[in-house]
Amino acid sequence: MNVRRQHIPGIAVAAATALALGTVSACAGDSEAASGNSDKIDVVASFYPMAFLAEQIGKDHVNVTSLTGPGQEPHDLEISTKQRAELEEADAALYLRGLQPAVDEAVTQSDIKTKIDAATLTKLEDHGNVEHEHGSEGEAGHAEEGHSEEPHAEEPGHSEEEHALDPHVWLDPVKYSEVAEGVGKALEKADPDNASDYKKNTEALVKKLGDLNTSFEDGLKNSRTKVFFTNHAAFGYLAERYGLTQEAISGLDPESEPSPARIKELQAEAKADGVTTVFYETLVSDKTAKTLADDAKLKTDVLDPLEGITDKSRGDDYFQVMEANLKALQTALGAK
Predict the structure, then answer these.
(1) Deepest of 74, 137, 156, 282, by most Cβ within 10 A of its Cβ?
(2) Between the CA atoms of 291, 272, 256 and 97, what dihedral angle is there, to the nearest 10 degrees?
């Protein structure tokens, strides 16, 4: 996907920022406007899994704004002039390079002091032969370097081989925990006065993610089949972590169309591997998944990639939806 660079003059940025602040002031009381976010860190997050981390770790010390609205599919997000202004005014940006090209571009061009790229806080992997339309240019260095203790400043230039790196790390509780630890350290550095709180909140979140990992390990240890079909290839890390095999209708891009040959291949594999269910998700069309299920006489169910929370989500936050995902997988795989 080609991303257009929008160079916003300083006057335009200031005007947009003033307009946004004026709107907030008009809607809030004088005391609320006065107390606003003057003593808090303003964090702009790229989409829900990043916003969730910032909220859980920052709690009362942060104001978190997400660039991706509820129900909005994040992969092809375009950044508005107002959002660019918000980025310029923020204290920190938390994003995942390789998932949203427009966000990568906007953060790179901004003058934000603290830029936290989640892709530098864990190891990104290439999960093989999948279509990868949206991946713009990922960071090959992430796969080689592993963890990074501090937020990483992006370097220009990327190689062709980086495209297949899978950004969906938040669906693996272990990798998400690694990202959480890096975010916590970055916030400690950005706001040292509240470092002890960030550290305590990070430890609590990491423990909950550890418990979630244990639930998945125990819940998926013994099952009739290890193969599951899903709408797009978001669950590679989860499958790898728990000894499963993900077969995606589409590639990393949920909007890409599978070929007729791919559909026939999946129909044959369903019979061979005892697949019972085709999973679809809440933020993209379920048409292809349901067509495959009808043709192959399979069931359908939701396996949520947690790219956003809506009223259709099976839970109100990351943990509730992941627990619902576990139950859906247990049923589909015939867990014992």
Answers:
(1) 74
(2) 140
- How far the first Cα of the chain sits from its last, in Å, is 43
pTM score of the predicted model = 0.77
The confidence band for 91, taking pLDDT boundaries of 50, 70 and 90, is very high
3-state secondary structure of 275: coil
**Sheet of 114-117, strands arranged across:** 62-66, 41-45, 92-95, 114-117
Spatial CA neighbour of 86 closest among 142, 132, 17, 37? 17
Contact 49, 306 (CB under 8 A): yes
Q: Which two tokens stand for residue 191?
A: 């706001």
For 223, list phi and psi in degrees, rounded to 5: -150, 160
Q: How many CB atoms sit inside 10 A of residue 30's CB?
A: 8
- Closest Cα partner for 85 from 30, 190, 6? 6
Q: What is the dihedral of CA 190, 54, 83, 318, to 10 degrees?
A: 170
Q: Is the pLDDT of residue 68 over 80?
A: yes
244-256: buried (b, 16+ CB within 10 Å) or exposed (e) per residue?
bebbbbbbbbbeb
Q: Cα–Cα distance between 213 and 190 in angstroms, integer? A: 29
Q: Report, in angstroms and rounded to the nearest whole number, the Rg of the chain calculated over CA atoms.
A: 21
Bridge partners of residue 300, in order along the sequence: 278
